[in-house]
Amino acid sequence: MEKNAIAQRIRAFRKLKGFTQNELADRLDVSIAILGSIERGTRKPDPKIIRKISDALGIEPEELMAASGSSTRHSS
Question: Count of CB atoms within 10 A of residue 70's CB?
Answer without folding.
Answer: 6
